[in-house]
Amino acid sequence: MSLKKDLISIKDLTKSDIYSFIETAKEFKKISLKDIKKVPTLRGKTVINLFYEPSTRTRSSFEIAQKRLSADSLNIAISQSSVTKGETLKDTILNLESMKPDAFVIRHHESGAPYFISKITKASVINAGDGINEHPTQTLLDIMTVMEEKKDISSLKVAIIGDISHSRVARSDIFGLSMLGADIYIYGPYSLLPVTGFKDIPNVRIAKGFKEAVKNADVIIMLRIQKERAGYHFIPSIEEYRNFFKLTPELLSLASKGVMVLHPGPVNRDVEISGSIINRDKTFIFKQVENGIAVRMACLYMLLGVQKSLEPDI
Amino acid sequence: MEEVLLFDNFATKEILLGLTDDILREPLDFNNVSIIGIKEGGVPIAGFIRDEIKKKFGILCETGFIDMTLYRDDPFNVKKSVGSTELSFDVNGKIVILVDDVIMSGRTVRAAIDQIFDFGRPQSIKLAVFIDKGGRELPICPDFTGKKVRAAKKEIIYVNIEGKEKSVKKVIKK
Question: The whole model's pTM is what?
Answer without folding.
Answer: 0.89
